[in-house]
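ENTRY TYPE: paired fold submission
RECORD: A
CONTENT: sequence, then structure tokens
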Amino acid sequence: MTRALVDEHAYAVVRALLGRKDPGPRLFAYWEGRAWHEVRAEELNAYLRERAGRAMTAKDFRTWHAAVLAAVARGCRTARRAPPAPGTGPSSPAPCAT
């Protein structure tokens, strides 16, 4: 399967992460001190919960972003809003007027 990444900034970040001198198998990592540290789902979700002040996971952001991309593809301009907390309502933006 071939995948294409068209966002120039995201491409540069992914390219740098793929080229790092690190034996770790995970793509996402951060440099701290004198070593690379892999980003784990549990750590990321704990960070998101702390920063948001409510239950939130990376999955909420993926779902929200996909819904925004779909709305934009339909020509909607008012679909961007924060993702809801899990279990509190729909996980996609409200319908928009085109």
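RECORD: B
CONTENT: sequence, then structure tokens
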Amino acid sequence: MRAFHRTVPVAATKLRVPAGFAADGLPLAVQLVGRRHQDTTVVQVAAQLEAVRPWTGRVPDLAREPA
């Protein structure tokens, strides 16, 4: 799995939203970053992502042995 790393200004609006599960069953998340003073836009996008989540009710099995 690849990760994207970039420095984000402290004043930027940030929000992390659940984004499903990886093939190994561990939870994934997406971090939304908006421009300064764009809180409403970031929250609206997060709400749209949460509204279409097909994994509602699923929880990770953290008790199992790692692969």
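NOTES ON RECORD B: Residues 44 and 64 are 36 Å apart (CA to CA). The helical segments are 39-51.
STATUS: closed
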